[in-house]
Amino acid sequence: MENREKQNVWKKVMAIRGMGQVITVTIGLIALWIVFGLLSPSFYSARNVGNLLRQVAPILIIGIGQSYVLITGNIDLSIGSVVGMSCMISATLMTKGMNPWAAMLLTILICIGVGVLNGLLVAQCKLPPFIATLGTMTVARGVAQIVNNNYNTDAIGEAAQGYRNLFYYGSTFGVYNTIWIAVILFLVFDFLLSKTRTGRHIYAVGSNIEASKLSGIDTDLITIKVYVVSGFCAGIVGLITSATAGMGTMDAGNMYEMYAVAASVIGGVSTLGGQGILIGTVVGAAIWGTLQNGLQFAGAPVAMRNIVIGIIVIISVLLDVIIRTGKPRKSKKSNHSNSVSGTSQGS
What we know:
InterPro entries: ABC_transp_permease (IPR001851). The protein has 347 residues and is an all-alpha fold. It has a single domain (20-323), classed as ABC transporter involved in vitamin B12 uptake, BtuC. The chain is 77% helix and 1% strand. It contains 14 helices and 2 strands; from the N terminus they run αααααααββααααααα. Strands 1-2 form a two-stranded antiparallel sheet. A hairpin with a 2-residue loop joins strand 1 (171-172) and strand 2.
């Protein structure tokens, strides 16, 4: 009886969309930790683990935003530039004398505004998400450059020390605040995605947008919502970046759109939409951070680290495409063969 109950629980777990790949990549993550630990025992040191988790946190946050968008079958290429824009706007406002918390709030509102714009361009103007977010990516990067007259900002000063402690340097219960921020955002957005009607609608839009429209779902509103989540997450990471550096840098967020996609697809979020869970994004971000950190300990150059991560992303997407489209094509071909065979027998 107990074995049967355990089997039922296991079947329910495996029935969750994307759980199979999450388990697979978790095994891969454990293997990476073992390999890098053998190559360098200091990889397991408390200091390195703490720094690794703090390094992973921003990637997890933007990965959450990108996962929301990918699950609807879209993509957000503007994430990295919005991170840079957030970093520069917040730091510039602080160096001009604005209260750090007011600057933080205004910056987040602007980043949410970019998310709304992306959603409107994709949902109502019917622009392909690649083109729409490529355009806003360029605009956001331009804003990051022009906000302080094409210069990085000065130091944000002692008045912003509380802000810097909240987003990067401070700790609570012995854990860096950056990690706490990532954990809180994960819990909130995972609940919204897995336990609410909006979350169910997000999956429905990604699975079949036409069927979603026929069932009464406001697909345009869902699209706007996921881009708002993406803009918000990118804004938070921009604040973390300015708190880390103590200033605004115009090149902040470069390549972050790639890191966000990497965390999502490695963790099992489908680029075709309708599949993926945020715990997978956690594992994907952890794999990204482990590879960066472990290869650094192994003495691998930055170029090699980028090549390895890029190859892993390509393989992850390729496997997703094969799994999602290969089986239907095979069954379709099989059905066609059966029908031809039946026709031949009938004649």
